């Protein structure tokens, strides 16, 4: 009888460990078990260099989503970035999406500066106003060549 009780506790411990490993794998992989759903917004930039799929999206300094995909539009000569946001996040339709860098040399992410409109964006909507990434190399180059004149 005592041996069955110990076996039951060991089995329960092993099941708990397997559950914890599955939860950690899903969480570290970027998926979420607890979220009810996401919606997608589209932002088009002239230059999205340094931006990667899976980078975070931030509003007011808080991570609110991830970059789902980055594609090139050959007709408009722009990069099309799809942002995946949680359904609980509302974005006014006059908001601005801009590409920023965390720190001086850090990873690039998309920052959403919320507007003041009462109408919120819905799944598949596109940002009207965007700000592309700033290349430090281009800034240094402009500064160096402007000094020669």
UniProtKB/TrEMBL annotation:
Segments crossing the lipid bilayer: 6-26
Recorded name of the encoding gene: mlaD
Residue ranges occupied by any Mce/MlaD domain in the UniProt entry: 38-115
Protein name (database record): Outer membrane lipid asymmetry maintenance protein MlaD
InterPro entries, per database record: ABC_MlaD, Mce/MlaD, MlaD_Phospholipid_Transporter
Record carries keyword Transmembrane: yes
One GO-annotated biological process of the protein: phospholipid transport
Top-level taxon in the UniProt lineage: Bacteria
Organism from which the protein derives: Shewanella livingstonensis
Keywords, alphabetical: Membrane, Transmembrane, Transmembrane helix
NCBIfam families: OM_asym_MlaD
